[in-house]
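Bumping my old thread because nobody answered last time. Still need a sequence for this structure:
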């Protein structure tokens, strides 16, 4: 049987964003609380687990340090601090440690924005 387990976390960070609409506030330095979730797929092993969620939580905590209370415009390898690039950044950081990482979501609850990155199969 195939399962998908996940771990949620949040981080607070500042950024600027150049936009064609609603541009004024976005281009000034401002902050958000981002809510992220990482998903790992697989069969359950002899212990009845796809993977110990404690292991995922530990790796997420290390990754979180690179984002929480940071100015996202200056985070190396992130690029323009959009939800899309945050998903890609988290995926690229965790994939080598979590080979069965199947998706990453990042959202801003305050405004209802959400992005999901799920790599193409194959
Ligand atoms: N495809 C995307 N579109 C937009 C993104 C994105 O990441 N990907 N991001 C934004 C803005 O950052 C988002 O709408 C928030 O706007 P912002 O000016 O940063 O803040 P607000 O004051 O509008 O929201 P609060 O969270 O209430 O502060 C737009 N499009
Ligand atoms: Zn913003």
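Sorry it took so long. Here it is:
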């Amino acid at each position: 049987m195939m399962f998908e387990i996940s771990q949620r976390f949040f981080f607070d960070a500042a950024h600027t964003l150049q936009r064609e609409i609603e541009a004024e506030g976005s281009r000034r330095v401002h902050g958000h609380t981002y809510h992220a979730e990482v998903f790992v797929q697989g069969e359950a092993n002899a212990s009845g687990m796809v993977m110990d969620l404690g292991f995922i939580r530990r790796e997420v905590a290390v990754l979180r340090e690179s984002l929480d209370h940071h100015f996202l415009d200056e985070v190396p390898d992130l690029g323009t601090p959009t939800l899309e690039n945050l998903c890609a950044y988290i995926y690229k950081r965790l994939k080598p440690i979590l080979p069965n990482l199947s998706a990453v979501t990042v959202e801003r609850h305050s405004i209802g924005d959400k992005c999901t990155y799920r790599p193409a199969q194959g």
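The first strand starts at residue 2 and ends at 15. Let me know if any region looks off to you.
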